[in-house]
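pinned: reference chain
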Amino acid sequence: MPRSAFRSAAVSLVLIALLGWTPRGVRSDTLYDNDLPDGKMAMAAHPEGHSQIEKETADDFLLTDVATIDGGTFTGLIPLEASVDEVVVEIYRVFPKDSTDPPSGNVPTRVNSPSDVAFDSRDVSSGLTFQTTAIDPSFDVLNSVVDGIHPIPNQTTGGEGPVSQGEVRIDFALSQPIALPADHYFFVAQVGLGGAGGQFLWLSAPKPATQTPFTPDLQAWIRDDNLDPDWLRVGTDIVGGEPAPTFNAAFSLRGVLPEPGAPLLAATALVALAGLRRARS
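pinned: its structure tokens
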């Protein structure tokens, strides 16, 4: 279907569905919650700028039904006197979707990694707002991955060792929710720091996830601009060992799900809306 025709059809479907979509047809819900820092790993995660190259850490979640994400939380470390100036959230699908296949061969594997490019994203320019809450002025973490992000054969560094910084939770809200079909996804959170500067380090969380468990619960991946579009597994590839550890990242997502028995057309509208946004981009 031509892109213009797709846009027209998608808009029509969304409008028709939403006109008949009563409040009883949807419910606000916690889509995923594992925002429980465990002190095992801290992973660099910040957008390009602020005198830093871009670094992305990704952890997965599963949607068994169509949903829209309208907010969430994630927890990490910042240096004392630093301030949170910028927040970006992104959604990736699982490789090989949205990716070049076969991959470059610069990393041990791309199986179960995030895709090459984001499926959707939000920042302050597209309606993201955020609030930062200080949790602990000195939170200790056993290991970290900040700059040691290298292609093969030098990917296994063991990590960069313990770190202790101020723990903060970031609550974000989306005035333009992200509409997603049922699928397996990765969530990426990035933070740009002002004030004293430095790098935001996203904290690890229990693996497998305890509050909203799902299968398969994949491990956290990381990349920087030099490795892009490839990704490395934080535990298996970078830390290494026998057996190598695996990590989740501390975050939660909230959003809207169809109520059981809600009109199929209303649910399908969310899928069409997601496709429309992708076509526009």
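why pinned: The longest helix spans residues 3-19. Residues 10 and 275 are 8 Å apart (CA to CA).
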